[in-house]
Amino acid sequence: MKEETDISLGLSSTEPSDVECSSCTGRKRKAEKTCLLCLSSYCEDHLNAHNDLHANAKRHKLVAATGKLEERICPEHDKLMEVFCRTDKQCICHMCITQKHRTHDVVSIDHEVADVKLKLAKTQREITDRITSRESDMQALQQAIEDFQASTRQAVEANEKSFTELIRTIELRQGEVKKLILDQEEEAMKKATELLKRLPSEITDLKRRDFELQRLERLSQADNGVCFLQGILSTPPLSSSMSSPVLYVHPYSSFQLAMEAVLDLIKQINHVCNLHFANISKHVQTADILKSPELKMRDLLLQNTSKLTLNPDTAHMSLRLSKENKEVNAMPQAQDYKSHPDRFDCRAQILCKERLQGTPQYWEVEYNANIWVCIAVSYTGIYRKGKKGVLFGRNRCSWGLRCYSTSYQFWHDNKYIAVNHNKRCPRIGVYLDHGLGILEFYNVCNDMSLIYKAQINFTEPVYAGFGMGGKGSQIKLCDLKEEEEAMMD
């Protein structure tokens, strides 16, 4: 009897999360299955009774025991919701189809569940991929942060070292100037002191001579010529050492000029520092962790955008201008240009109208080279006539980047440097800081990578210029402000 009681207790005991049998009276036993048609859950004994009763009824669908069956009942028709309305995105019963959802897109819940499971699996894969990607991004970002911090420390240390060396150099120069001043003071004081010591005796001797000469003058007035002449003959002549030096006592005998020279040096150093600080600041702002440095570089360069226009008075006869003098093409036939002293007559070259000097300038050029094109800056005094020494970069008046299909050369004074940049770039950005003497060429189409940088001591204003090798070459000046406005729209 005790054993049967224990078994009965075991069968009737349920966990809080278990579904109870709907047919059990008294103690509820754990349900094994739920009938979606009967909307009831059954333990093992009552499930057998249910199956025997509805052995041939196909609509009695059994599923794993589940609670909250009221959530599966249509609140309007009190029927089992077996259909999903895709139009309204809700579960409905068969009665709903004939009424509110008559023209809607409906499918069985099983069909929708299968479809959603596929989408869910796809979403889960995407999430897994994103998790992997984000973990990779997190590791890369962490590494980037560590690298950026290391670069920051390195930059700060290099900065401190460089400025310490600069300060030390200035202090050494300061010491040298101080020594020069003190040495000059010592030498000048030595000469002046020696003269100061000698002057009293010279003054006494001169006074004695003056007294003697006055006595002789009185003898000449007393008609005593013999004594006068004898006295004059016995008086020794003044020696050269007795001649008084010419003394200049005015501000220029001080160190005023030296002080002014030092102040001029300080002004020049401050001027150079201010100019270079702008360039330093530009490059510091390109250093970042999250924002793309190349995009940030272009953003900074675009702040110095210059609007250039081709000068038709300088165009070679084979060059045809278009697009309001923003585009030039090398043609096989000569153009109808009037004679002009500024025109290039033997080389397919052209200059822009704008004089470039002072504040930094930036412009971009699109080109198509049959053989090569040259993107240059030039003094206005470049030779325009004849073939010898006229090409941009083949003289002292101009500097040019000659662009082939995937190779580049930088030319100046008839010498060239082979540029280590083998990426094609049909659009090149040119940055000019005339004051600092910086000329840079950027590959706009390849992450703003630097093609070449030249340090130049400009002595006069320059003009942008272009040269073309071969018929069919084309150059276009990009309207950066118009492009920016178009992007904003």
Give an overview in words.
The chain is 40% helix and 19% strand. The protein is built from 8 helices and 19 strands. A 7-stranded antiparallel sheet has the order 7-8-19-10-15-16-17, with helices on one face. β4 and β5 (90-92) form a beta hairpin.
Key terms:
elongated, 8 helices, 40% helix, alpha+beta, seven-stranded antiparallel beta sheet, six-stranded antiparallel beta sheet, 489 residues, single chain
User: What string gives the helices and strands in order?
Assistant: HEEHEEEHEHHHHEEEEEEEEEEEEEH
Q: Mean pLDDT across all residues, rounded?
A: 85
Our measurement of the CA-to-CA distance between the termini, rounded to an integer number of angstroms, reads 89 Å
Low-confidence stretches: 1-13
Structural class: alpha+beta
Can you list the strand order of the major beta sheet? 7-8-19-10-15-16-17
Strand content: 15-25%
Helix count, DSSP H or I runs of 4 or more residues: 8
Report the biggest beta sheet as strand number plus sense, adding barrel if it closes.
7 strands, antiparallel
How much helix, percentage-wise, in residues?
40-55%
Taken from the alpha-carbon principal axes, the silhouette is elongated
Task: Please count the beta strands (DSSP E, at least 2 residues each).
Answer: 19
**Over all CA atoms, what is the radius of gyration?**
50 Å
